[in-house]
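Before the break, one more example. Copy the sequence into your notebook; we will annotate it together after we see the structure.
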Amino acid sequence: MFLRPCNRYLVVEPIEEDQLEDNPRILLPDDYKQSNPFGIGRIVGRATDCSVEAFEGEIITFSSNMLEKISINGENFSLLLENYVLGILSEIE
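Here is what the structure looks like once it is written out:
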């Protein structure tokens, strides 16, 4: 199933970062996950009325608490309003 976003939304595939150090100084449960206020993700769809110049396949950074997760017929989608895109990651300037 494909979700075509509307109203300046982007469909984002979140990318998990390994944030724990190899040798932590504090013992943590195996399922512990440190929360980061920022996330990164790959754009997989965008509304036609988006003004941000980020396109499908590009990696963006965003405020992670603004990522909206929805489930439709058993499929999960992550949506982000274009206002919450903080930057586009690339290898060159």
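The chain has one domain: 1-13+36-93. The two ends are 35 Å apart (CA to CA). Try to locate both features in your own notes.
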